[in-house]
Amino acid sequence: MAGGDELELLGTWASPHVLRVRLALHLKDLSYEYVEEQDLKNYKSDELLLNSKLPVLIHDGKPVYGTSLSLIQYLDVAFAGAGSSLLPHEPSKRALARYWGDFMDGTLVKAMEKATWSVTCREKAEVRAQVAAAMETLEGALRECSKPFFGGDSPGYVDVVLGGLLPWLCVTDKRQPSVKTFNPITTPLLLSWQDCFCSLKKVQGLMPEVGELVDLAMPVPTHCSRESLQVILILSSLLVQIATACSR
Length: 248
Ligand SMILES: N[C@@H](CCC(=O)N[C@@H](CS)C(=O)NCC(=O)O)C(=O)O
Fold this sequence. Notes:
Distance between the termini: 85 Å
CATH topology of the largest domain: Glutathione S-transferase Yfyf (Class Pi), Chain A, domain 2
Radius of gyration: 22 Å
Bound molecules: glutathione
Number of strands: 4
Order of helices and strands: EHEEEHHHHHHH
């Protein structure tokens, strides 16, 4: 830890936004105190929370306001001497890394959220296409890097952001088997990226169990029960009878 700085992170175990900041702290070798906050209501009116969201980073007793992405950028600048830099030094590469971070929150996360709640075949097909398109776009970005990580030979900012989403991407695959986010045919580089990232010592132990996240997520009805089908059949036949009687 640089020059006596104290870092505290308020988070919650299942949050991808919290996980990405933890990944950044670990990859930069920064020591910090992690405080698990299950109940955000305690903090709603507190000055610590800018927008009632976790994570909250506290540096030397003062909250650092911003989204999880800006907190990672803050850590990289405030602790420039610690560990390796997450964002590239070259300004255009730095801007591009930020672009991919925003892309993940704006496009991939939105498609994942829709995947969680989609019920009809049509909705499922739509989100499947959206998740696949977002992953293929990221595959293209990784191909441009020609390295195992978006950050090059070691993980950087984009890796941390995607790494934070990794457990929830696995949940999306599990709950919607028609969605395959890491696809050996369309995203082979991302598939090996996943292996490389998860085998990093600094990452191991931080990732939440996918099974626990699946349990946490609300069950999505994937098929009609026998009883509800019977009710639908009875109602349909009644409607047919009424329509026939009316037309006489
Ligand atoms: N854009 C924010 C999103 C953070 C966020 O949505 N945090 C969730 C946990 S994953 C949260 O605190 N939700 C509580 C609430 O909305 O009351 C960020 O990147 O930090």
